[in-house]
Design goal:
The chain is mostly helical and about 160 residues long. The protein is elongated, with a radius of gyration of 20 Å. It has one domain. The relative contact order is 0.17.
């Protein structure tokens, strides 16, 4: 079990690191543009927040049918409570499924942010701006996915 302090530090590092890398990428891709700097600053943290929400929603879509199927399989139990406990037993001490959702969410958010940056008059190569932002989102999403899959990035419970 990870401490609350280490989880807070990880979340702050992911938000801060994502914002800083987006800000510096915007400075390189569209120098002098305040719009691009703002979009770059928020694109990866927004992808992170939307990815967490999508992950929680996907877990519900995956776990609830599995739980119900477990209840149906264990219906021979006389007591519904025992059947539910038997069904829940398979989910204890396991990592939530569906962490891969961070990759497409971060990619999509960063690609959309790249399009916004490319609309800035300061953006030098429009297609390079979009591609670089999309690639940055892809890498950030893959990092979040690996952290979540390994159990280092916990799913918020409250």
């Amino acid at each position: 079990m990870r401490s609350a302090f280490s989880e807070i530090v990880l979340f702050l590092a992911l938000f801060g690191g994502g914002g800083a890398s987006g800000y510096f990428a915007a400075g390189a891709l569209a120098p002098g543009s305040e719009l691009a700097a703002f979009v770059g600053l928020v694109m990866l943290p927004v992808g992170f927040a939307l990815g967490i929400s999508a992950w929680q929603g996907l877990v519900v879509l995956i776990v609830v049918p599995r739980f119900l199927w477990g209840l149906i399989r264990n219906r021979r139990e006389r007591d519904l409570r025992r059947a539910a406990e038997a069904s829940l037993k398979q989910f204890r001490n396991t990592r939530p499924p569906g962490a891969w959702v961070f990759v497409p969410v971060c990619f999509g958010v960063a690609a959309a942010a790249g399009l916004l940056m490319a609309l800035s008059p300061a953006a030098q190569a429009k297609i390079v701006t979009v591609a670089a932002c999309a690639f940055l989102g892809l890498v950030y999403g893959a990092i979040l996915w690996r952290l979540a899959r390994s159990g280092r990035l916990p799913m918020p419970v409250e």
